[in-house]
Amino acid sequence: MRGTKLLALALALTGLAVAPAAASAASGCDPIDPRACLLPWPNNHFTAKQKGSATGLRLNLRASMFPKNTKGRPAFPADLNRSDGFSPGPQIMTHVKGLDLVRSGAVPVTDIGSYASRDQPVLLLDARTGRRQPVWAEMDANPDGEPGSDGLLIVRPARNLAEGRRYVVVLRDLKDSAGKAIPSSPAFAKIRDGKATGALAARARELRGAFDVAARAGVKRSSIYLTWDFTVSSERGLTERALAMRNQSFAGLGDRNLADLKVAGRSPAFRVDKVTDYTEAENQNLMRRVEGTLTVPCYLSSANCAPGGTFRFERQPAGRFASIPRRNGSMSFPFYCAIPRAAEQSPARPVIYGHGLLGNPAESFGSGNQTFARLHNIAFCATREIGMSDEDVPNAIRLLGDLSLFASFPDRLQQGFLNQLMMGRAMIHPAGFTADAAFKGAGGQPLLDTKELAFNGNSQGGILGPAITALAPDFTRSVYGVPGMNYSMLLPRSIDFDDYELIFKPAYSGRLERSMLLGIIQTLWDRGEANGWALHATDDPPPGTPKHKALLEIVVGDHQVSQYSGEALARTLGASVRTPVFTPGRSDETTPFWGVRTGGPASGSWAVMFDSGPCRKAFDQQPLECTGSSRAFRDAGGVGTPVPPTAPTAPRFGQDPHGIFDLARGEQAAAFFDGSFRDVCPAGVACRLSMWPY
Questions:
Q1: Is 690 exposed, middle or buried (0-12, 13-18, 19+ CB in 10 A)?
Q2: Is the Cα torsion angle 468, 581, 107, 212 positive or negative in sign?
Q3: How far apart (Å, rounded) are the C-alpha atoms in residues 417 and 457?
Q4: Residue 242 and residue 530: Cα distance in Å, rounded?
């Protein structure tokens, strides 16, 4: 997932100044949490009625409500107000000074099943059914000890919420470290106790529905510390932009039925720019490397869809609330294909490859991928996952210093989805890649088997992968290596975020404000990553799209992509989990992979947890202390990693297992591409990476 060198270079070039961020006050704030204008979040108080939207609402935010950066610019991406609700995987936030979650009995990430306990103080209720939703609660972690940053309560759904649905948050009987009850804010106490007057009376009227839902769920009004409601974005609101781009682009090729898994119309336009043939002495894995250029429709405002561009939308008829991106000519972009040596005898399976954080397609030529390609006759083709590739680093730097510009991030990610889908079509179209001599063998035979395409994304490729899969008309099976979803959850739990904080922290000096902003922009980010698409990546596809199956290969204690995020993705996708999930002593979870079914059809979606093992010496497997720097640990011959922290902080000790190549994982992925899940681990024990012997 890392892009450290590129980020460091860009940071050096930007020369951001360090200065305290200005505080802001504004009308429209919610008085029930006085700590910050936009708390609690998400919150229907920050919406307005909207004719023609799928939820009947839209967000109604103003720049004056947002924290400002060092230059005095509010961190308000105006595109938020085109949303008809909030994220389906929201970072639910409010400030509770002095809260002790353990003394309160709040549900932790390690015991999600306790969300249903009779006296659970942290509740998320479906307003329609009154049913509790599985969640966990945590306090925003503050490893730097910044003053004034304590007390931000974060509640996370354990699986993504239903789109277009209204939910009610209820916090009750909260306690401090001494076990004393924490009083509500004066404003909320007046509302709860029926004493609201003046301007507060209007907020009391808004909250009547939330109190009614809580009462039907058996919650005593007098016990409530805080309650509010919010509405999740609709499926249309989350997906219509990328779907419109996909549908228009494929229709332009002559294919208007994208659910039938049949290739129709023309191939996307491409050219081959360079062919490199290898002798077996030069490369025992690959026979050829092909580099070329594809041309597809561009939907960003920038020329050739360059970084920093955003969508411009088609004008809609009166009464219709929609965001359909307007085409802006075409863009050309490079692609790279690695042809395995075995393809000369039998055409290789074509697989779209998704690279890591702020990376590039060169990753598809890495030694591990080359070995995988040779062993299983797979031809990886890759292009930049634009929006979050190496060429987007300067824009990422710019956004971290000014989040009002954030829309350019998810907008370009969605253009990147289209690019990968169009490349995939060229990979299997009879007039596509295989019609070019670069993709033919010595006898003129095709080197790619065009009958079936697949997707393999690792790290960032496994985070964006479910979105690409949900949109895909040409493949039905995807493998995600070290995957997750929901960047508001991922970033604080990733060592990669250390680099970004070097920019983010000077621009927005308050820890609480930074954490809050990450949660707020998730509503935009959803359209460009798994969080907004996971509900539709398998058995409930978007309109005009085939169903898909997915395999998740998650790693215990991953330092870059949190395993807890991978578990949330597995729940949301409806995957089965391979058991045993963990080796005894290698998990703090009361019920491993709570909420994910064990067992299931081999033809279905699956999640597998791989483990590099506890900290130990590589040469004799004897225990080794995990404390100290990772470099000192490596110098001592250390391998393995501790189980992850339960707080929202990054694992920092031991060896990061994130990028460890493993032949068994490759064998499992290849079998999944062939149509079924194959258990490659010994029966009765949890799966291990090859560096940890059974």
A1: middle
A2: positive
A3: 13
A4: 13
The answer for residues whose C-beta is within 8 angstroms of residue 574's C-beta and 6 or more apart is: 538, 539, 605
* Alpha carbons 689 and 694: distance in angstroms, whole number: 9
| Of the candidates 58, 139, 142, 54, the residue with the CA atom closest to the CA atom of residue 93 | 139
Task: State the pairing for strand pair 687-688/606-611.
Answer: parallel
Residue 208: exposed, middle, or buried by beta-carbon count in 10 A (0-12, 13-18, 19+)?
Answer: exposed
Q: Is the bond preceding residue 506 a cis peptide, omega within 30 degrees?
A: no
693, exposed or middle or buried, with CB in 10 Å at 0-12, 13-18, 19+? exposed
Per the document, the length of the chain is 694
- Could you give the C-alpha distances from 462 to 196, 354, 556, 668, in angstroms and in order? 49, 7, 16, 16
Residue 523: beta bridge partners?
none
d(CA 228, CA 206): 9
Looking at this protein, which amino acid is placed at residue 122? V
Cis, bond preceding 67 (omega within 30 deg of 0): no
Please give the pLDDT value at position 2: 58
The phi, psi pair for 220, rounded to 5°, reads -70, 130
CA 586 remoteness from chain centre: 25
444 in Cβ contact with 511 (< 8 Å):
no
Please write the tens of the pLDDT for every residue from 623-658. Answer: 999 988 878 898 899 999 999 999 999 999 999 999
Question: Pick from 102, 37, 78: which is nearest to 402 by CA?
Answer: 78
The residue with tokens 């930074």 is 514
Q: How confident is the model at residue 306 (pLDDT cuts 50, 70, 90)?
A: very high
Q: Please state, in angstroms and rounded to a whole number, the distance separating the CA atoms of residues 92 and 523.
A: 12
Q: pLDDT tens digits, residue range 352-373? A: 999 999 999 999 999 999 999 9
- Residue 185 DSSP one-character state: P
Q: What confidence tens digit (pLDDT) does each residue in 549-581 have?
A: 999 999 999 999 999 999 999 999 999 999 999
* 370 Cβ neighbours under 8 A, 6+ residues apart: 283, 285, 286, 338
Tell me the two tokens of residue 430. Answer: 């009879």
DSSP-derived secondary structure letter, 549? E
Token code pair at residue 209: 């529905």
CB burial string 110-127: b at 16+ within 10 A, e below: bbbebbeeeebbbbbbbb
Would you tell me how many other CB atoms lie within 10 Å of the CB of residue 543?
12
Q: How many CB atoms lie within 10 A of CB 148?
A: 10
pLDDT at 22: 32
For tokens 């035979």, name the residue: 445
Instruction: State the angle between helix axes of 460-471 and 408-428 in degrees (0 to 180), rounded to the nearest 10.
Output: 70
Question: For residue 41, what are the contacts with CB-CB under 8 A and spacing of at least 6?
Answer: 90, 91, 92, 93, 94, 516, 519, 520
